[in-house]
Amino acid sequence: FDDYLASFKSGQRRNIRRERRSMQNQAIVVETISGEELPESYIPLMYRYYARTNARFGPWGCKYLNDAFFQGIYETYKHRLIFSAAFQIGNQSDPIGMAMLLKKGQALLGRYWGSRQAVRDLHFNVCFYRPIEWAITNRYQNFDPGMGAEHKARRGFESVGVYSLHRFYDERLDGLMRTHIDTINQAEQEYIDALNAFIPLARKE
Q: Which pairing describes strands 142-144 and 107-115: parallel, antiparallel, or unpaired?
């Protein structure tokens, strides 16, 4: 983790260290739990936290999944699951926040997270710092934390474009997309370039 920190400018190194200390100052510990050790009771709780996170963003949230999805992932792909979970010290059976990650090959993939209540710096520790530590310790080559914006660039994650396949059954909407897709793609690439320019990496000698 110190090597990860060393890649940043000094100001961002101080910021990450401060965000990590914030957990200790709030009597919170963040742990990683493999799927084989994961209590099944955490699965409906993960769904509730996921739903709460999406509810904060109103109609622009990404609440695509239901509770059956989370239960199915647990039952079918438990061996691929890694949970990053936060606990108040002294009550380490009741997570106050969790992130669900999947491992495959040499990749760790993060996507869904949530918490019982707003806690300062909890998101960064549960979704980024603890999984990064786990990936380094277990010699994983890649960690993809999922879609995001400036807060992920600030922590060293490079944005990349992806392909998406959609079919629009409404002919009017299909016509609009076909007319403007090149402009949309150009705008998305400009946003990706702007995010990557925002990464606060130290200048290499």
A: parallel
Nearest-5° Cα angle at 173, 168 to 174: 55
Confidence class for position 205, pLDDT limits 50, 70, 90: very low
Other beta carbons within 10 angstroms of residue 158's beta carbon come to 11
CA distance 50 to 184: 29
Contact 149, 123 (CB under 8 A): no
Task: Provide the residue type at 189 as one letter.
Answer: Q
> CB count, 10 Å around CB of 109?
17
Q: What's the gap between Cα 59 and its chain centre? A: 20
Q: Please name the residue that has the structure tokens 């949230």.
A: 61
The per-residue pLDDT for range 21-76, each reduced to its tens digit, is 999 999 999 999 999 999 999 999 999 999 999 888 766 667 889 999 999 999 99
CB 108 within 8 A of CB 101: yes
Cα separation, 97 vs 127, in Å, equals 10
How many whole angstroms separate alpha carbon 28 and alpha carbon 95? Answer: 10
The SS3 call for residue 150 is: helix
Extended beta strands in the chain, E state: 28-34, 81-88, 97-104, 107-115, 142-144
Q: Report how far residue 19's alpha carbon sits from residue 25's, in angstroms, rounded to the nearest whole number.
A: 10
